[in-house]
Specification:
Strand content: under 5%
Order of helices and strands: HHHH
Number of strands: 0
Structural class: mainly alpha
Distance between the termini: 65 Å
Radius of gyration: 32 Å
Number of helices: 4
Helix content: 55-70%
Length: 134
Amino acid sequence: MAPTLPSTFGTKCWILAMFGVCAVWACHSDPPPVAPGEPIPAAAEIQVDTMDHECDALVVAINVYGECPYNDDDDKAWAKSLAQVAQESFDAGHKGNPDAPSQHVIALACHRAATSVKHATERCSNGPKPKRDY
């Protein structure tokens, strides 16, 4: 039976590979630290009206979205039920008599939601929804 020790060529290849691994490991270094940049300023505070005005504007925006001519029956029904639920929620919120900071947070949320619905209305008024292939 022939000896099973590694051949001279195999030993040389193994030594060369280990030398390459050690060279890569020895030459590798972490990149130098990067100095921090200028701080990013916080977004400006959004000026909102009263809670009642902003939340009423949200209900109006939802109703306007529901009247978009390119909405199908499901979208119109969804907008009608959403406006009804929103109005009921705002009426219930009045009974809770929230304090001034809470009213500001609610007004801010209603303002942002109304802005989003207005953008959806703008998209809807530019034509029907694109058809999806899935």
